Structure formats: structure tokens, C-alpha cells
Amino acid sequence: MLMLSFDDTIIAIASPSGRAARGIVRLSGPQAVALAESTFDPASGSQALGFRRVRGAWRLPPAGRCPEANVPAEIWMFRAPHSFTGQDCVEIH
After folding, report:
1. Ordered strands of the 10-13 beta sheet
2. The dihedral of CA 53, 37, 11, 68: what is its sign?
3. How confident is the model at residue 48, as a pLDDT?
4. CA neighbor of 36 nearest in space, from 83, 81, 85, 93
5. What is the model's pLDDT at position 20?
6. Alpha-carbon distance 71 to 91, whole Å?
7. pTM of the predicted model as reported, rounded to 2 decimal places
């Protein structure tokens, strides 16, 4: 049986199945901000992570025959304790 603790960082798809206007990946937990910072490049002139919304590109590593990709994205940041989970929460749109 898998046991989770409040010290775990969880990453999950948050957009609905099927068609959606945008895809959303949600990170929640103590490493959420560090993980987002390691894969997201803010657009020039954008505010640093830690503010509410930042535009930029999400760096996706190569997978199979697909090369590395930079996907236009926005980061939505919800810092603890002011998030739904009470932990740091990051949404990548």
C-alpha cells in the first residue's frame, strides 16, 4: 500500500480529460517551487517566480524520438499557507 505524507511533493495533470482550452499540470508540496524553477524559463521582463503569474516557456526534455522542446506557458504561483492545500502550489498552464 502506498503511503503519502505531508512532506511529499505531488505532480498531477489538473486539466479535464478530453478537450480543454488549456492543459494544466499542478505541483503541490515542499519541492513544488524548486521543480518549477528548474524547468521554466520566464520571458524577458517577466517577474521572478514567487509572484502570482509569470509568462515564459516550459522546458520539456527529449522523449523517444521527440527532441527537447520549449513550450509557451504561464506559471501560476500560490505560496503556503495561501493555497488550497496549505502548501506551496504551482500550476503550469
Report:
1. 10-13, 25-28, 89-92, 69-78, 53-60, 40-42
2. positive
3. 59
4. 93
5. 79
6. 14
7. 0.78
Q: How far does Cα 13 stand from its chain's mean position?
A: 10
Half-sphere exposure for 89 (CA within 13 Å, toward CB): 15
Model confidence pLDDT, tens digit, residues 53-72: 888 998 888 888 888 888 89
Residues of the chain with pLDDT under 50: none
Contacts 24+ apart (CB under 8 A), 50-58: 50/77, 50/79, 51/77, 52/76, 52/77, 53/77, 58/92
d(CA 13, CA 22): 11
